[in-house]
Design a protein that fits this description.
mainly alpha, two-stranded antiparallel sheet, 4 strands, globular
Length: 222
């Protein structure tokens, strides 16, 4: 499920719905197992937890990274924005309020989209924070279109997510990452997630366009 967006979203953008619809039904087919994963296996009070990798029945495939990767969670919301339907309950439940800062943190533990950080040291990755904001905002908009009440938890988390981590005037991969990460191959040889903050994703309220542009230029030269 992690890579479904990369391999399929363009069919919607190119208006080839017949091709997209051949595979997008997997979200409906796997919904019962994602609900059970979130609420029964993982103990969250609400929502559906989408997997990174599955077997044909929708069960989570084994692997250290699979349980802690988050970036695939908003994927259904992107497809739903094209077709106006979705839910984001689990995303609101996943974020945890930081008693010291008062904001909602993502992780630890979690793996970033590039799967190249230590999960127990990874807090508030920039790409995932932006994607969370986008997903929660989209879900709120759809509920308003339907004349339904937006859950208070979705609004509270969306408006109080941790700020994007910044180092030396540029967005950083995650909060507290070593300052030399731009020169560390372990962090720079995989997904250029920081480029996706604006461009791959639409503009969101927690992104500075000037910092995003400067960060993209740094990615290009690193």
């Amino acid at each position: 499920m992690e890579m479904f967006f990369w391999h399929s979203a363009h069919w919607a953008l190119f208006n080839n719905w017949d091709l997209l619809n051949r595979a997008s039904g997997v979200y409906a087919r796997f919904l019962p197992s994602t609900l059970a994963r979130a609420q029964t296996q993982q103990g969250f009070p609400t929502g559906a937890r989408w997997p990174k990798m599955t077997d044909p029945s929708g069960r989570m495939a084994p692997g250290e990274i699979n349980e802690l990767l988050l970036w695939e969670q908003p994927h259904p919301l992107v497809f739903a924005e094209y077709q106006y339907r979705a839910t984001a309950d689990w995303m609101a439940a996943c974020a945890r309020r930081n008693a010291s800062t008062g904001v909602f943190d993502l992780g630890p533990p979690l793996y970033v989209v590039g799967e190249d950080t230590r999960p127990n040291a990874t807090r508030n990755p920039a790409f995932e924070l932006v994607y969370w904001r986008f997903g929660l905002a989209a879900a709120s908009t759809w509920l308003e279109r339907l004349g339904e009440e937006v859950p208070a938890a979705c609004t509270e988390v969306k408006e109080n997510l941790a700020p994007l981590p910044i180092q030396d005037g540029l967005y950083a991969m995650y909060e507290g990452i070593p300052s030399d990460f731009w020169d560390t191959p372990a962090f720079t040889n995989d997904h250029p997630a920081l480029v996706g903050l604006y461009g791959w994703l639409p503009m969101t309220a927690n992104v500075s366009l000037d910092i995003a542009k400067a960060t993209a230029e740094k990615v290009w030269t690193s």
